[in-house]
Design brief:
Strand order of the largest sheet: 1-2
Number of strands: 2
Length: 194
Amino acid sequence: MPFIQCQQTNNAQNQSLDLSISSFVLTIPPVLHKYSTLPPSPHTSSTYSPPDKMPAILSWQDNLLQECTTFKHNLQSQSSILRHRPAHRHTERNSDASRAVIALSLHTDRIVEIGLSMISNEPGSALISRDPSYWHREGERRSTFESVFMNMERELDQMALSLKRHLRQQECREISARLEEMAGKVEYILRDFV
């Protein structure tokens, strides 16, 4: 993290702290790329580690599994909140639920992005080998993976709009059931791996 050092000027006429722009020295340690093989800089000697001791980078498959696990957990949590919500305090609860569902919708984009990277960078991964037809496109059509998550995103956007209205308890339970159903679709990816 950058820090600023202030230098004090010692002037016989004026013994004060000079805070002019010229007295500031900005020290920014060099950023090391994860694959950098540059020798350590004196600024980073305490934090530099050679490439052979760098932490392992997650594979695309592991990254996707991690994101899907988090997504599934968040779907189930929001489902539980909507299912067990009290009948009073609807307006503030709906606002919170709407924001949470929007966050879930945005998470689907990240999952699709990671999944497509896995398909192009790790075509022989165990996840793809288990069910190639789920992951690969046929001609111009989207893969089943893409379709499932894009449909989830669309449905989550609609739920978020619905939650902005004043909903009855039964309507909240219906949304809760749809979120649980989505968690089941995510489970398909996770089965045998998590």
